[in-house]
Amino acid sequence: MMPYFSFSRFPLLFLLISLFVAPSCALSAQPVPAPVLAAKSWILVEYATGQVLAANDPDSRVEPASLTKLMTAYLAFAALKAKTVTKEQLVRVSTAAWKQEGSRMFIEPRTPVSVGDLIKGVIVHSGNDASVALAELIGGNEKDFAAMMNREAGRLGLQNTHFMNPTGLPHPEHYSTARDLAVLASAIIRDFPEYYGFYSLKSFAYNRIEQFNRNRLLHVDSTVDGLKTGQTKDAGFCLVGSAKRGQRRLVSVVLGASKDDIRVQESLKLLNYGFKSYNMMRIYAADQPLSEFKVWKGAEKIVGVGFTQDFIMALPNMPKGKEPKIEPVLESRQPVLAPLVRGQQIGTLTLTIDGEPYGSFPVVALTDVPEGGFFGRVGGAVMLWLKNL
């Protein structure tokens, strides 16, 4: 495909695009070396863009332990949003939920408990009993709830995740990865801002027993507002964290640390690295044309092409002259035929960094282009036929 494109017609475009970096990939050139953590795997993600700022073995399947409860809470939030349950709704506690081993919020069969308190029990207490009670309420039973978890995992694009229960108790077919857990945490923040505040609760008292949030990042850094810890013998000590400083939010995942103190300090090290070593910048403004593509059979002969939303990216703090070499290629979907609707994809912007493929981004029509009149359509059809001879 040959694009109708010329940098000479848009002298500022090359400068803008030369700064553009793609989401979901780590930069080949970094401002300072990413930290090496005392953990098995980890990942640091820029929430607004999905960029991976640092990672080690992020796609290795591991036992997620109680990080599983991120999905349990996600489905509970979805039920609240759909109004199939309410926070005030009272739930009868089953014997199966009451008898759960491991961390608990100490619910009892003789005392109904509200959905809101169960969610707090899942998030703050990491309660296995609360997780099973919610699973039975929303899914009918643990098995059907696990099927719901896996359907949602598929919808969210968690490619290396499979759930067998709502608690994270060990099972050979129960696994996830650092990358998938970062995607899940980001989805919670994005999809349920009205409920995300549950994750910043530092303590919760139920049944006259107060328990403190196991996410000790909340207690050592005021910018941290989530999310969840997990720990088993095989999983080690794990932590999914998120912090917001100014307008920026980062999501960190640290898996397989040897101690609670280590997962906290390594998570904080990772977050501090991201905030100090990168800055956010608007790279390309919404509705500003990158170029113009020729339109066939349209009332207009050309259409501006670009993005309908601002592109913001985390850019490394690099010394002048040390920036990575970024090369853009803009391609149109030939032929571009009317009618066109604003926002319709008509091309792709592909980037390479230091000669390596980096990412591709859809570019869209910035205005509507209706079909031309009869003679315009016929003339366009003839010209297109001659062009393709």
Tell me what the structure shows.
With 389 residues, the protein is α+β, with helices and mostly antiparallel strands. It is built from ten helices and 16 strands. The strands form five sheets. It has a five-stranded antiparallel beta sheet, sandwiched between helices. Strands 11-12-16-15-14 form a five-stranded antiparallel beta sheet, covered by helices on one side. Helix 5 (128-139) crosses helix 6. It starts with 12 loop residues before the first helix and ends with a helix. Residues 1-26 have low confidence and may be disordered.
Give a brief outline of the structure.
The chain is α+β, with helices and mostly antiparallel strands and 389 residues long. 29% of the residues lie in helices and 26% in strands. The protein has 10 helices and 16 strands.
Attribute tags:
single chain; alpha+beta; 5-stranded antiparallel sheet; 10 helices; about 25% strand
